Amino acid sequence: MDIVKRGAAALGAIGTVQKKSAATRERVLDAAARIFREHGYAATTLNDIADAAGLKTASLYYHFGSKEELVEEVLRIGTTLVLEAVKSRLAQLPADASFRDRLKVAVHAHLDTLLSLTDYTSADIRIIGQVPADVRARVWPLREEYGEIWQGLLQFGKQTGAVRTGADLGLMRMLILGTLNYATEWYKPGRKPVSAVAEEATAMILGGIGTAP
Amino acid sequence: MDIVKRGAAALGAIGTVQKKSAATRERVLDAAARIFREHGYAATTLNDIADAAGLKTASLYYHFGSKEELVEEVLRIGTTLVLEAVKSRLAQLPADASFRDRLKVAVHAHLDTLLSLTDYTSADIRIIGQVPADVRARVWPLREEYGEIWQGLLQFGKQTGAVRTGADLGLMRMLILGTLNYATEWYKPGRKPVSAVAEEATAMILGGIGTAP
DNA sequence: GTCTATATAAGGATAGAC
DNA sequence: GTCTATCCTTATATAGAC
Predict the structure, then answer these.
(1) Best residue in B158, B175, B177 for a mutation probing chain A (most A CBs within 10 Å)
(2) What ranges do the domains of chain A cover?
(3) pLDDT tens string A12-48
(4) Closest nucleotide to B50: CA versus each C1'
(5) A4-207: which CATH architecture?
(6) How confident is the model over A70-80, as pLDDT tens digits?
(7) Does the nearest atom of strand D lie within 7 Å of A21's Cβ?
(8) Cα A183 to Cα A113: distance, rounded to the nearest angstrom
(9) Which of A102, B10, B12, B98 is least buried, going by the fewest C-beta atoms within 10 A?
(10) B3: Cβ–Cβ under 8 A, 6 or more apart, which residues?
(11) B174 in helix, strand or coil?
């Protein structure tokens, strides 16, 4: 099974025999990611999560110290999954790959992780603005690490002349990630494949919506 | 005072002498928009809103039947403000204005309303995915009305040859609005003027991030 | 119109049995 | 590890005085 598809397990001890505890913990995390993603942080109750994971509310406390601790773990997994996906897909490119090739690959990997693989990254994107400030502060460094991958990519584009000189790369990065992340709000699986969204997004980011030069 | 700046009042009886009731109602709405925007729907309590508006929780029920009714009004005002802003700015253009001019004006109007004028539209964008499903269903037609303005704009672009033929305009519209709407998540007033964000966004949407042809 | 007082329900979290 | 039972707090909403 694809490493990324395994969700929470992907960040755990892969290949080892899992204890019952670890398996339950993973079921709880999977349920939490899905429900947080759907209803938001505050509207999701520990009871909802426990029900979906097949145990009682009080039992959650054996695995997590609090609701905040649980959501923090979901956020961490969500960011890690997309970070690893983009990083590894970029690493597979030949060393002399162009900026356009790199950007295309990064866009596809980001959208695949966000829209089709698991609920963790979409939960992350959708609720990061709703969680208590101290939770957000704790996961922030990890998010910045991800941002730096994109920042580096844009810098490479600028150096190779593929990106407008004089542009504010930080602002550009936020616009690009906004284009991609907002897809969690409107994308409905089944109508269009994720790849179609990724191709249209790549086209717009690289050349705009106008007629190609 | 600018009509748009007046927020809730802009949708009320402008120019007439306001009753005390209407003035209080507006204070409540202003407070609600700000706090919903900051903390999300579920995490915002009626007590928070009442405090900010300078009255007791129970008194809110004189003006609104429930929390749902209150948030629905905030959402309606938020969508109406951006819809009217974009519509009126487009109407001010000369009849023979190009697609590029029209798109630029629409982007600026959208971002101005979203990022600097009031809290209503940003609250709308940030919490629409968190409110109870029946509230969302009731305000949906109004949101679609706004979407149609953009859809018409893109169709005009296609007809005049400014937009790639063969493109899925619905998908394109979602990508563009995503680029703009996601700015509510990261934009911090003070660093960059909204106009700088609007110009960079316009440039990317029209011609991509690359070197201009 | 706004207040105080209160009904009612639900959520996060803990204690202790099994 | 998971359960039942329960504590404590807070939320929406209503009743009725002023």
Answers:
(1) B175
(2) 4-207
(3) 654 556 677 889 999 999 999 999 999 999 999 999 9
(4) C2
(5) Orthogonal Bundle (1.10)
(6) 999 999 999 99
(7) yes
(8) 12
(9) B98
(10) B10, B14
(11) helix
